[in-house]
Write a structure and sequence with these properties.
By secondary structure, this protein is α/β, with parallel strands linked by helices. The chain is built from 13 helices and 12 strands. Strand 11 and strand 12 form a beta hairpin. The radius of gyration is 21 Å and the shape is globular. It starts with a helix and ends with a helix. The relative contact order is 0.13. The model has no long low-confidence stretch (mean pLDDT 90).
């Protein structure tokens, strides 16, 4: 167990993060992240998947220690392990966070314009990032940036441009370069290919993969796009309504998913030369200010059993490295509906 712990770079333990608001005398609590525990290994690409509103971006925000009210951590911990140093992320002061941000823990935001200053040239933005953590002159920062862009295969001419003069794909590549130029040990990417066309998406995915493989750092990718996960991730965690419902290596998730929600996600993907009708997930996600009792997926699950409506299924290891929270997996085989076994097999 000790060897396993030492191989982890991030550990999340029983994390509960809620949006707590009170307006006009009405209190509201949205259980966006509810009891999630996971461990991310050094040097891996870890994917966090799920449909919009499942809590994946909220989870990432808390793992970055970048949450602010009304988002409140009500329970749990996030621990970074850098070399021989163990850091409680949720206990860091703003000054301590600034010290590790971009240098050890970095972030590729969903929209490139969120991080690129629209009134400064790209070279000046790189200088700002580098000089915040290293004592370098403007010329030294420029040379460092030129060398890194050349290493990534990006044209030097982008340095003289303003963000609005670049295409969406090039802006996203520049943002990735900006987030990784200080060689952070841990990088989070939030929907890195959103709003990009398919060819540009491929280039962005390839850039992320090349940086991760060359620097041997850890990359956490948050996206609803299962195609991105298939191309990038070593392991995938599937979230639903604020809960971690399945986690396994990428091949297992795509070939042998066990939770009905994951099965629907995989089977809804288009396949080459397959013209059969894709099966969508019935119903809609629950409101997290009043989630259903028991398993949160049971109102949409065609295989729900009586126990699913009363009790929340524990997250169990069904096989080595494969965790799933579903009574269809943990219950005795004779209690499981035959149609679920047929669906899972086909």
């Amino acid at each position: 167990m000790q060897a396993t712990v030492e191989s982890n770079i991030v550990e999340v333990n029983n994390l509960r993060a809620y949006y707590i608001t009170k307006a006009y005398g009405v209190a509201r609590t949205v259980q966006a992240v509810d009891g999630i525990s996971l461990a991310i290994k050094r040097g891996e690409v870890y994917g966090i998947a799920g449909e919009s509103g499942c809590g994946k971006s909220t989870l990432m925000r808390v793992m970055l220690a970048a949450h602010q009210p009304p988002l409140t951590v009500v329970e749990g911990s996030v621990t970074y392990r850098f070399d021989d140093e163990e850091i409680s992320a949720l206990s860091l002061t703003p000054e301590e966070l600034r010290e590790i941000r971009w240098k050890q823990v970095s972030y590729v935001p969903q929209g490139s314009m969120h991080v690129l200053n629209p009134v400064r040239r790209i070279r000046d933005t790189f200088h700002d990032f580098i000089s915040a953590h290293q004592f370098v002159s403007k010329q030294e920062a420029l040379e460092m940036t030129r060398a890194y862009l050349a290493e990534l295969g990006l044209p030097e001419k982008v340095l003289a441009a303003y963000p609005h003069q670049l295409s969406g794909g090039m802006r996203q590549r520049v943002t990735i370069a900006l987030a990784t130029i200080l060689w952070p040990k841990l990088t989070f990417a939030d929907e890195p290919t959103t709003a990009l066309d398919v060819l540009v998406q491929r280039g962005v995915i390839q850039l992320l993969k090349e940086i991760q493989q060359e620097k041997k750092n850890t990359l956490v990718v948050v996206t609803h796009d299962m195609g991105v996960h298939a191309n990038l991730a070593d392991r995938i965690a599937v979230l639903y309504a604020g809960k971690l419902i399945e986690e396994a290596d990428t091949r297992t998730i795509f070939k042998r998913p066990q939770h009905p929600y994951t099965q629907y996600l995989i089977q809804s993907l288009p396949k080459i030369e397959d013209k059969t009708e894709r099966v969508s997930i019935p119903g809609r996600p629950p409101a997290l200010d009043n989630p259903p009792s028991g398993c949160r997926f049971h109102p949409r699950c065609p295989y729900a059993m009586p126990i699913c409506k009363k009790e929340a299924p524990p997250l169990i290891e069904s096989e080595r490295g494969h965790r799933v929270a579903c009574f269809l997996v943990s219950e005795e085989q004779e209690n499981v509906p035959e149609r679920y076994r047929e669906f899972a097999a086909g």
